[in-house]
Specification:
Length: 429
Amino acid sequence: MTYFIDRRPNAKHKSAVNRQRFLERYRHHIKRSVEEAVNRRSITDMQRGESVSIPAKDISEPVFQHGPGGRRTVVSPGNKEFVEGDKIRRPPGGGGGGGGTGEGSASNQGQGNDEFAFSLSREEFLEFVFEGLELPHLERKSLKSLEEIKMVRAGLSRDGVPSRMSVTRSMREAYARRIAMRAPIKRALKEAQEALAEEINKDPILKNPARIAALEAEIERLEKRIEAVPFIDTFDLRYHQLAPEPQPSSQAVMFCVMDVSGSMTQNHKDIAKRFFLLLYLFLEKHYEKVELVFVRHHTAAREVGEEEFFYSRETGGTIVSSALTLLDGIIDKRYPPAQWNLYVAQASDGDNWDDDSSICRDLLIKELMPKLQYYAYVEITPHEHQSLWHEYENVAKRFAERFAMRQLVEAGDIYPVFRELFKRRLSTP
């Protein structure tokens, strides 16, 4: 079969169609490299692409060449040594293809073929990460978030503290008051001055000295009244008034809580990691700042780093309430609900001491849920549910809008469960 490859460039000189064909053709190699990268990287290091190497033997492409038979005439420009009909000696070493020693192998001639390497973009990398989950494009959508109060200016008032005084508005009020208070006095002064000038300009026989003296006294009194108008008065002062205004929080913290008891296998942890990763990417699309807190527990709970969270071999029994108690303490100490949107994702296989499950229920209802934005619990097990699941069902009935729980059996269940958990927050494709 003959293949025709379209190398016509699209915008920015990239052949997008051919790139998609290339990714599809070498999907097996790319998928393997992406899976290795996911296991190697941290959850927060999923925002860059990945370099992928493919053995050179797997990238050969069909080419056109002359078939056997037929008559050909070849003219080599600048040939001074050979004429038509001359026989050319075979090169030393046999064939005319050189002395290659194989695909990517070492040889004493220093020749060989390197593996073909190329880079995946962030979008392509994430597409392979969630391959099989049928992940749609998430559109930015406003979330219902907890609000913090911020004091903002809300007009002016006549009362306030000096630090909030509006100088510009106070001077404007003072200027308007001076104009208003001086205007009638200035009119009276002008009338008195005109009357005095008229009286002085009269014939000496008709002048009235008593009236002239009275007018001069009136003018002096009016000038003193004008000068007595204060430059600024307490009546003129204006102060900025502050009012509380709710501000949506732009930062979130995601708590990853996982059971690491002896019943949690590495496969369970890998499934949990995919779920935590999906939730982290979802939150990152809606908040400017997202912090991660990892809490692992068996009979006791500890806050750890991501590497220890997923790959530590420490095991033991199971007391889930130890993790919830530690979680509540971390929130009170570092993440006040008025400033942070709090999300919790818990992964477990469902095992727990029977007496402890009721304690977990009470901790969630009385302490944690009033502070949290959302709580997602996934139980990774193909078996029947145990006491922890049944107690969590009581919490879900009490906080139906903010508490969700689902069961996972294999990696392919992750996205359908995620979509169900966050269906109120996902936009309709």
